Amino acid sequence: MSLLDANTPEFFGANERPDFEKFLDDLPGPYLVLLDGSQVIGCGGYCIEDENDPNHDPNTRVARTTWGMVHPDYKGLGLGKLLFIHRREMIKASGDADRIRVITSQFIAPFFTKLDFQEVRREKDVFADGIDLVELWFDF
Fold first, then answer.
1. 121: Cβ–Cβ under 8 A, 6 or more apart, which residues?
2. Could you tell me the CATH number of the domain that includes residue 70?
3. With CB atoms 3.0 to 4.6 Å apart as the test, which of 68, 83, 93, 106 could cross-link to 132 if both were Cys?
């Protein structure tokens, strides 16, 4: 939780804390954690989209990234990219998905466009005032 707190309010809204706590209590898929000694400095996971999810496309198998972040003191070292590339390779190796969906903010979206994701949707102030929802896709 301290990692989320360190990234709030710059990248996450304070209102998202209960959602993250609930997520950690019931992980929907693999979740990676980067440590520096005993300090959590990064994390991120993925899950395979449930066919009952209202956003599910029945014509494709989709993996969705989950709660990725890096501690502000460690930004710029390539750790976020390392976490994502490892997740992407895990998804590809599993054979469970043809595409990856990312739901993030306008602050993080450029990170994913540099990794060949295509932006498909943007909605203003969804996560909090000044924090927009951006949806991006990557096809294998």
1. 133, 134, 135
2. 3.40.630.30
3. 106
Q: Which stretches does DSSP call E strand in 25-130?
A: 31-36, 39-48, 62-70, 99-104, 118-128
Rounded Cα gap, residues 5 and 123, in angstroms: 24
| pLDDT for 59 | 79
Domain count, the chain: 1
Structural element, H or E, at residue 133? strand 131-139
* Span 54-106, pLDDT tens digits: 766 777 899 999 999 999 999 999 999 999 999 999 999 999 999 999 999 99
pLDDT at position 60, please?
82
Residue 25 is part of which domain span?
2-139
Task: Please list, in sequence order, all residues whose beta carbon lies within 8 angstroms of the beta carbon of residue 82, skipping any fewer than 6 positions away.
Answer: 34
The tokens for 6 are: 């360190």
- Spatial distance between the Cα atoms of 112 and 130, rounded to a whole number of angstroms: 20
